[in-house]
Amino acid sequence: MSILPNILFAVLLIVGVGYFAKNVKKLIRNIKLGQDVNRSDNPSERWRNMAMIALGQSKMVKRPIAGFLHIIVYVGFVIINIEVIEIIIDGLFGTHRVLSFMGGFYDVLIGSFEVLALLVLVAVFAFWIRRNILKIQRFLNPEMKGFPKNDANYILYFEVVLMTLFLLMNAADLHLQNVDGGYGHFTQVGSFPISQFIAPIFDGMNSGTVYMIERAAWWLHIVGILIFLNYLYFSKHLHILLAFPNTYFANLNPQGQFDNLESVTNEVKLMMDPTADPFAAPANPDAVPAKFGASDVQDLNWVQLLNAYTCTECGRCTSSCPANQTGKKLSPRKIMMDTRDRLEEVGKNIDTNNGVFVPDGKSLLNDHITTEELWACTTCNACVEECPVNISPLSIIMDMRRYLVMEQSAAPMELNNMMTNIENNGAPWQYNQMDRLNWKNEN
Amino acid sequence: MSENISVPTMAEMMAEGKQPEVLFWVGCAGSFDDRAKKITKAFVKILNRANISFAVLGTEESCTGDPAKRAGNEFLFQMQAMTNIEVMNAYEVKKIVTACPHCFNTLKNEYPELGGNYEVVHHTQFLKSLLDDGRLAIEGGQFKGKKITFHDPCYLGRANNVYEAPRELIQKLDAELVEMKRSRANGLCCGAGGAQMFKEPEKGNKDINIERTEEALETKADIIAAGCPFCNTMMTDGTKFKEKEDTVKVLDIAELIANAQDL
């Protein structure tokens, strides 16, 4: 045997993994463009969340049909990838099913991979029908036109191709294992509960042809996996990796607790301190004054940016959003998609300008997310509750409202009236604070 | 009836050298809104009946800052918060009860970081604890056998995971508790949160409170129970829009209990 295939395989592997690693580096750099936020507290609770929500899929099953189908594909993905280890070793060293020394256990492994592959095919078919035939509202929202819709289907097609190649490869392998007198290094190993039904199509075929089919399926399968791996960075499918850090770093406070801006606290404390010297020189005269709220992705914190990359656009948030359900423009999913789009735009800007961001006259606010969307939110937390991987679209909406109000004084007029009332008389309506207890004596 | 209610203020208590068991945070709606004032009084009547030592801040109370914060005005929120905290810390307040989930959430979750550390409970939790301690007895009265559905306020439910206290109180009324299609963590907002109460909604094809009211009406309940003055307004408006205000009442849990005892 020539070692040419082994070298070719090694090169493919290095290129595939290398390009992916390059994009991961970019991904991490982009996420780090966000503001600092400390999420290192309570590691035990964080690990537990990750185990339950990402690994255990606990929030997925809230919608049982999609949840069940997802678990099949998820388990299939995780388990079948064990096979990739064997494929890599076989590819590098020209061995045949190198893990088969495990004997009976190997049979169980390959057998379960096959059963899972079939189940994945069935589940993916069901997903495709849900997305393309059934009229499920959350797949039909305006933000799902164009690439987002195609992206979802591409992922499904990828899975179909990979699973089919996997089964075809096994079927051909099985056929060669059983050729009278044996064929090459195809010794009888493994158990093939599914592909044994495909194998008969090779009956009567020239062993050389079957071998070519087996090799073709084998190569296409691993090349497909490498392409899929590299597609992740450009796709919503990135969630298969980021769901884990995302659930780990998610907010642990009660959902109703919104953060208190520290920059504001310092100002208010100074304002209320009778001993404060109004003419005192600032502690750090060169410091750039803090910007209140967020108008662009760099103003958001890194967890919010991680959220944006993690979002797989399932739309459970949008389908549970009271504003969206009643025909308002706001869609929490679109908030996440816009954030990612803008972050990518900023990242590309940095790439083309030798590592520095050159202002492009655009921002997340207005160019991607409109004020109409932001003001439609009731802060009800339904989107946060729904998200299967603990993304918070609400926190982005809030930070952008803060920018609108505190940097631009651009609140809707009625809200300005409400805030004026609170400032002047301590209530959102125009009632005198001195009348607060009048109810006591009223009938 | 209202002539009989006793509502001491923290200032009066302090002058007498007394410290109440709990501060009743009335909130802006509870103080000024005509509908919400009825809830305030109903709750006070229950407190009076159970001989609870409580006090209000009266004219020293000011908006918690919740609507300002949710609208994005962190400055105004923190000024309100720090002023309120100074007042409450001066009175050495330990425990607060409030009938407004927005005040509840803000006082409980957002005040501690600014120096206001109190035990904060929603009035349904407080009433439930009185019941458990045998300090309050609840009878069904006029609500016996009635169908009641409970609308989860976002800032009580999802925001703070309080789902059971209001439901257990309703069941104590010997009423039949019926759930809406979306309840507890899946509950649909009434449309008032996030400062929406104070503005017209954005353009859409329906108002949120109508959507929620329709869902409540689907249960064929006689009463929509609420635990928030803003939800109460939104759901009441919803029943009016659906021309059901004569047959389906929107009542706060405190009102249900006070009415059941003929207080």
UniProtKB/TrEMBL annotation, chain A:
An annotated Gene Ontology molecular function: metal ion binding
SUPFAM superfamilies: alpha-helical ferredoxin (SSF46548), Respiratory nitrate reductase 1 gamma chain (SSF103501)
Organism of origin: Flavobacterium tibetense
4Fe-4S ferredoxin-type domain location: 302-333, 367-397
A GO cellular-component term linked to this record: plasma membrane
Protein name, UniProt field: Fe-S oxidoreductase
Transmembrane intervals: 6-24, 65-89, 109-129, 154-172, 216-234
Pfam families assigned to the protein according to its UniProt record, in alphabetical order: Fer4_8
Keywords: 4Fe-4S, Iron, Iron-sulfur, Membrane, Metal-binding, Oxidoreductase, Transmembrane, Transmembrane helix
InterPro entries: 4Fe4S_Fe-S-bd (IPR017896), 4Fe4S_Fe_S_CS (IPR017900), HdrC_iron-sulfur_subunit (IPR051460), Helical_ferredxn (IPR009051), NarG-like_sf (IPR036197)
UniProtKB/TrEMBL annotation, chain B:
InterPro entries per the UniProt record, alphabetical: Cys_rich_dom (IPR004017), HdrC_iron-sulfur_subunit (IPR051460)
Cellular component GO terms held in the UniProt record: plasma membrane
Cysteine-rich domain: residues covered: 22-108, 148-235
A GO term, aspect molecular function: oxidoreductase activity
Any one Pfam family match given in the protein's UniProt record, by short name: CCG
Keywords carried by this UniProt record: 4Fe-4S, Iron, Iron-sulfur, Metal-binding, Oxidoreductase
Name used for this protein in its record: (Fe-S)-binding protein
